[in-house]
TrEMBL record:
Xref: InterPro entries: DnaJ, DnaJ_C, DnaJ_domain, DnaJ_domain_CS, HSP40/DnaJ_pept-bd, HSP_DnaJ_Cys-rich_dom, HSP_DnaJ_Cys-rich_dom_sf, J_dom_sf
Coiled coil: none
Protein name: Chaperone protein DnaJ
Pfam families in UniProt: DnaJ, DnaJ_C, DnaJ_CXXCXGXG
Taxonomic source organism: Thalassovita litoralis
GO BP field: DNA replication; protein refolding; response to heat
Length: 382
């Protein structure tokens, strides 16, 4: 059975460019992969045919010979190709063909071709630090000093990992690629180089201070500016203050996560503050003035209207928390809690009983409630 034209196999024209040939191969390889065509007995042979065609057409020398002589270029030693002599036709060098496309499809994810070379100097990891501040500190803003346990560049080797600050050498196992390839059936599998751990370089004489890593563990004191208006969950990024890079690589970043502690007087809701203030029964009934605290440490005088009930709220404009990115401040809300007196003396009890006799018309909510209760009971009886 005669072989099909390689261009027909890939579904492209004879004048196709290298990129067009690669795109055509990628499409066919995905379409005919045996793992995706378990119900097609011809899928494997078609898959091999596609790889054979691509192995020929991706190589400029092979392609030139094929364009001139067709399949005869690879029969009987006709035509010249690689310096090593002859072309490998027949079944096609699938591992070479698929490896090219594997690099193209997954190269960026795996670190790219020759990724080991770019990984010689690896960026340090980002760090997280949880910082707790008081509500007063969140209101005014503050500068705090924190101690961060981290990896820092080794001073003995200037971060190179080599004794005396010497230069690493190219890994002989992977030739600086950081990866090694192994043939498994039809597939070429890439793995991290076991000799250099993917770095692409090795250090023959590691630094004694850091063991060849180029960094050591050390606590650092950092001054952090906490802006006014922060709230729980606010994140502050300090660029370059994270873990030191490996072998001279750039440092990571430090992320400070803010937690605002609960306050004994104020509750916060975004930029607004709430304060529950107890008032005496007489003050609530007769009205009067009270002093309430504000988050800035000051005092505000609030007028209590006569007849105020528990739960009544009054607003103090602009006495809340500042907005984190400007835009003014929130408000403070005073919630009244009318307090029932305890430990009454005999005289107080006597006066309250006398007051109760005279207060039938002074409790509108109670009168309304019990009128509704009476109506409910009457309806149940009927």
């Amino acid at each position: 059975m005669s072989k099909r034209d390689y261009y027909d196999v890939l579904g492209t024209s004879k004048g196709a460019s290298a990129d067009e040939i690669k795109k055509a191969y990628r499409k066919k390889a995905k379409e005919l992969h045996p793992d995706r065509n378990a119900d097609n007995p011809d899928a494997e042979s078609q898959f091999k045919e596609v790889n054979e065609a691509y192995d020929c057409l991706k190589d400029p020398d092979k392609k030139a010979a094929y364009d001139r002589y067709g399949h005869a270029a690879f029969e009987g030693g006709m035509g010249g190709g690689h310096p090593g002599g002859g072309f490998r036709g027949g079944q096609g060098d699938f591992s070479s063909a698929f490896s090219d496309v594997f690099d193209d499809l997954f190269g960026d994810f795996m670190g790219g071709r020759g990724g080991g070379g770019r990984q010689r100097a690896t960026r340090g990891a980002d760090l997280r630090y949880n910082l707790r501040v008081t509500l007063e500190e969140a209101f005014s803003g503050i500068q705090k000093t924190i101690n961060v346990p981290s990896s820092v560049a080794c001073t003995a080797c200037d971060g190179s990992g080599a004794e005396g600050g010497g230069e690493p050498t190219t890994c002989p196992t992977c030739s600086g690629m950081g990866k090694v390839r192994a043939q498994q059936g039809f597939f070429t599998v890439e793995r991290t180089c076991p000799t250099c751990s993917g770095m692409g370089q090795i250090i023959k004489n590691p630094c004694k201070a850091c063991g060849g890593h180029g960094r050591v563990q050390k606590d650092r004191a950092l001054s952090v500016n906490i802006p006014a208006g922060v709230e729980t969950g606010t994140r502050i990024r300090l660029s370059g203050e994270g873990e030191a890079g490996l072998r001279g690589g750039p440092s990571g970043d430090l992320y400070i996560f803010i937690e605002v502690a609960r306050h004994e007087l104020f509750e916060r809701e975004e930029t607004n503050l709430f304060c529950r203030v107890p008032v005496s029964m007489t003050t609530a009934a007769l009205g009067g003035d009270i002093e309430v605290p504000t988050i800035d440490g000051g005092r505000s005088r609030v007028k209590i209207p006569s007849g105020s009930q528990s739960g009544r709220q009054m607003r103090l404009r602009g006495k809340g928390m500042p907005a984190l990115r400007g835009g003014g401040s929130g408000d403070m809300f005073i919630e009244l809690a009318v307090e029932t007196p305890v430990n009454l003396s005999s005289k107080q009890k006597e006066l309250l009983r006398e007051f109760e006799k005279l207060s039938d018309d002074n409790n509108p909510e109670s009168s309304t409630f019990f009128r509704k209760v009476k109506g409910f009971w009457d309806s149940m009886k009927s």
